[in-house]
Please model this.
Amino acid sequence: MNKENLDRIIQTLEENSSEKDAYFEFTYENDDYCHIKSNQDGILVFAKELLRSVEDFEEMSHTQYASIDIKTNDWFIDGNVFAPYIEPIYCTRGKIINKPTTKETFKDRATGYLILGFFILLVGCGIIGFVEILSWIFN
Model:
């Protein structure tokens, strides 16, 4: 998104929201899940601040490790869920989620087959032992 479009959207959000009337809160409910309590102005102001963080994101260097602060004011109720900054990540969702997998080697397959063979041998010996015990009892 280019800077002009971003500035236009932020300006529209500023014109259509009021920080004085805004309410926005991250909250827990019975420690089971987190949700947002907000009025319309709160969502618009929060969206505006997130879009402002995009401007900061684009100004940062890819090699620089820093966080981007989300500017809050009285409109934001600080619950125990919200982290007040964004950690920039400079790669796509696919690269983050799809971690490279290691190829299964011969050693990995051989280990699996050895363990399987051991259990088959153990079960076979158990059956033979059980049959021998029965033959002792009934002879």
In short: The chain has a mean pLDDT of 79.
